[in-house]
Design brief:
By secondary structure, the chain is mainly α. The protein has one domain (22-134). Helices cover 53% and strands 0% of the residues. The protein is built from 5 helices and no strands. The longest helix is centred in the N-terminal third of the chain and has 29 residues, at 21-49. It is globular.
Length: 148
């Protein structure tokens, strides 16, 4: 007579369904759809409001990764894939989705005059963050490594 036990935490299978590979794939696909939407919205803003809106959208599609430059002098001493710890707060601040989203809400409902190039820049920034999440890049630990 043999007893077999089943466990949801067997060899590499996570007990939490939100961290399984299936959910991770769905989450990445959702981030990719989000990225494509905000990219298209940025292009629409550029077409409707001219080169300044397009230029700012493109610039903010790139600017969040310039946080890497903060710790450039320490880069040769870092492990592969590690961001210098001094650059981590800047990198994480530029890669939190809530920041451009909150600014979009503030822009939309706030008492400020409308300036479409600003909204286009926010679209580009949110698209950048969404592409990063879709391709598996997220926030960093305080030591500079990718979070899971």
């Amino acid at each position: 007579m043999s007893t077999t036990t089943t466990s949801s935490t067997r060899a590499g299978v996570s007990a939490d369904p939100r961290t399984g590979s299936g959910f991770r794939g769905v989450r990445r696909a959702a981030w990719l759809v989000n990225a494509l939407f905000w990219s298209a919205f940025a292009v629409l803003e550029a077409m409707n409001h001219g080169w300044l809106a397009g230029g700012l959208a493109f610039a903010f599609l790139i600017v969040p990764d310039l946080a890497f430059l903060v710790g450039l002098d320490a880069a040769p001493r870092m492990a592969k894939g590690q961001l210098p710890p001094r650059a981590v707060p800047y990198y994480n601040a530029m890669h939190r989705a809530v920041v451009p989203l909150a600014l979009m809400v503030l822009y939309t409902f706030g008492p400020f005059p409308a300036w479409p190039p600003l909204f286009a820049a926010l679209c580009g920034w949110f698209a950048h963050i969404s592409y990063d999440r879709a391709f598996g890049y997220g926030l960093r630990t305080k030591e500079g490594f990718q979070r899971d």
